[in-house]
Automatic annotation (TrEMBL):
Transmembrane stretches, start-end: 26-45, 51-73, 94-124, 136-155
Domain of life: Bacteria
Keyword Electron transport: no
Pfam families: DUF3180 (PF11377)
Lineage of origin: Bacteria, Bacillati, Actinomycetota, Actinomycetes, Mycobacteriales
Keyword NAD: no
Keyword vocabulary terms for this entry: Membrane, Transmembrane, Transmembrane helix
Name listed for the protein in its UniProt record: DUF3180 domain-containing protein
Organism name: Gordonia insulae
Length: 177
């Protein structure tokens, strides 16, 4: 039997579990996706069908739904209306909403990467009328991905539990012993 590896001071301060989504991670996902899509589109653009103008519309719909959910969750969390009683926000539902927010942030980063890679290719094509036709749809898609990431990060923020009151906030007196 081996003894556990000693942990550094930094490792001891961090709690295990799910942390907030980092913009850095989403940016890396988007950049890798954009480069990959740019390369794929560069060699296969001639075989792709024309892109509909509103191909990225679903991203806006998802973002709108997440904003509505965020308002509901924020209201419930702010009023401390989270629990198992009827009419309260169940903790498992809050966890599911948080998982939805994290997945949507990743989906939004992927969408930004796909549409940005396509748009980068389309801006290099000045002599193709198909590229001129596809450019507005790609712009709508990039903006939709950014809106989805923003909505997902805000929803994730709304799922945070309010801080516990400190002794100073309660009046400096500890509770009865």
């Amino acid at each position: 039997m081996t003894s556990p590896r000693p942990r550094s001071g930094r490792d001891q301060d961090e709690e295990p579990g799910l942390g907030p989504t980092r913009l850095r991670d989403l940016t890396i996902i988007g950049l890798i996706t954009a480069v990959t899509v740019f390369i794929l589109v560069r060699y296969n653009y001639g075989s792709l069908p024309p892109m509909p103008l509103l191909a990225g519309l679903v991203l806006y719909i998802l973002a709108a739904l997440e904003v509505v959910i965020a308002f509901i969750v924020r209201t419930r969390v702010a009023s401390r209306d989270v629990g198992r009683a009827r009419g309260q926000l169940h903790p498992l539902t809050a966890a599911r909403v948080l998982a939805l927010a994290k997945a949507s942030a990743i989906l939004g980063a992927l969408a930004v990467g796909v549409w940005a890679g396509l748009l980068a290719f389309l801006w290099t094509q000045h002599d193709l009328s198909a590229a001129d036709h596809d450019r507005p749809g790609a712009i709508i898609g990039v903006v939709g991905g950014i809106v989805l990431v923003a909505a997902a990060l805000w929803l994730e923020y709304c799922c945070r539990a309010p801080d516990d009151p400190t002794d100073d906030a309660v009046g400096g007196h500890p509770g009865p012993a």
